[in-house]
Amino acid sequence: MIIMPLGVGSATPTADRHLASVAMWREGRIFLFDCGENCQMRMLQAGMKRSKIDYIFISHLDGDHFFGLPGLITTMQLQRREKPLHIISPEGIQKFLDAAIDAVNLELCFDIVYHEIPIGTEHMMVVEEADFTVEVRKLEHSTYCVGYRFQERDKPGKVNAELATQMGITEDQQFKDLKNGLDVTLEDGTVVKAADIVGHTIHGTVFTYVTDTQFCENAVKLAERATILYHESTFGQNLKDKAVETGHSTAQEAAIVAKTANVERLVIGHFSARYTNPFVLLKEAKMVFDNTWIATELRPIMTDPEQERGIFQPPMQQRDSFQSQSRGGFQQRRPYQNNRGGSGGGYPQRRPYGDRPQRSYNDRPDRGFDRPQRPYNDRPDRGFDRPQPRPYNDRPDRGFDRPQRPYNDRPDRGFDRPQPRPFNNDRPDRNFDRPQPRPFNNDRPDRNFDRPQPRPFNNDRNDRPMPRPAPRREYRDTPSENRPPITPRNPFDEFDRF
Fold it and tell me: CB within 8 A of 160, min separation 6: which ones?
């Protein structure tokens, strides 16, 4: 049996919580408890097939617990479902679904079998099959609400085949009778009692679903010796008055129900949107009932991990594809890890490093690091103890021990012949001793550097007579109105004077 929380929110969804819905997988069949909005999408993300749903159990007719039904039924119609679908709910669910189906002119290709619970029913057995039963009890809420107890039938113990053979049991029918608890009489009149051959009875697994209720006696009866109790924890103890006003339970009250009913494991869910950190509620519940887990969406809770591990893989803790593209999505929270090895989804988590003593890496017997170590070279198969080879130069065939002579001391190289004279001007064939040409200067007739140079350009040229400057007169003592006008003598004179 695997319990898969699909939505753990209450009343309104949040950015990382969906509305109430829990799926239970058992031997390939799926039983759905409540069906909030987006329930079918969460099943896809969990890896569950919607075609495997056989029963849908609705606790009460508040919209956040059953508004996902029309969409789910429409999807089943599109998938051409053939087998009937059983819906168990308080009165009114058939009227709602018929109106929704008629509004869209939907012709179903499968049958819906309604099991409506009359309003006010205190206790009722709603499903009885060969290997399990489902019963309901009335809870305390603002509207009529019921809780569900899914119980597997007890199985007979294992038959001791070797002992039965020794006592004379040989036929298959006799083994079947013993397994069913019936005594077998042999041909010689000997009676073989089933209690002597068959082991202890194997009690069936029990799952209890309790939501939207105050603390009440019927909740304890539904959870009596349950394997897993899924109980709502909408508020903390500081909002006890709010819980009483709205007909809900606190985390502490859920733990009291679990402790009173002697359940094996408590899973709390149905959190109010005001709690962004639901671990506050988990802390309150653990103060009363230690084996309490927090319901994390799409994290499976298994009753037999040895056989059920790997059927549904938990989702990867990574960003949405939508967030990776537009940075607008949300990232799911990491599952809770406590120091007792489990919460938040059924997978035992490792304790924080600060809560356990540290030991060195080599301090593990299975690694064999505590055996005495010997040097790396102390192994006969490696040959490290044989004498090492002599140095590279200590070989006669290499000739490294002969005396060395200088590089130039070889007749075949001709280093002892006289060296040529240096490259200089003392060679007749190079004509270095001829007179050098005179330097490039003005002393060449062909260049006409010795002719007289023209006069510089100035104003003292006969071909451009310039007016001579008038004698300067002082007008310091002359009134300004009697002074003659200033007339420039040339284009530059005006600039010079002013």
Answer: 197, 198, 199
Q: Which of 483, 489, 485, 487 is nearest to 469 (CA)?
A: 489
Backbone φ/ψ region at 218: left (φ over 0), alpha (ψ -120 to 50), beta: alpha
* Nearest CA-CA partner of 236 in 300, 282, 298: 282
What is the SS3 assignment for 175?
A: helix
List, edge to edge, every strand of the sheet that includes 21-26.
112-117, 85-90, 53-57, 29-33, 21-26, 2-7, 301-302
Closest CA to 355 of 340, 345, 370: 340
- Radius of gyration (Cα) for the chain, nearest Å? 53
Question: Cα–Cα distance between 461 and 455 in angstroms, integer?
Answer: 9
pTM beyond 0.70? no
Query: Phi and psi dihedrals of 471, rounded to 5?
Result: -65, 140
CA–CA separation, 39 and 327 (whole Å): 25
Which residues 6+ apart lie within 8 Å of 325 measured at CB?
none
Q: What is the dihedral of CA 36, 37, 43, 44, to 10 degrees?
A: 180
Q: What is the pLDDT of residues 103-131, one digit of tens each?
A: 999 999 999 999 999 999 999 999 999 89
Q: Known catalytic residues?
A: 64
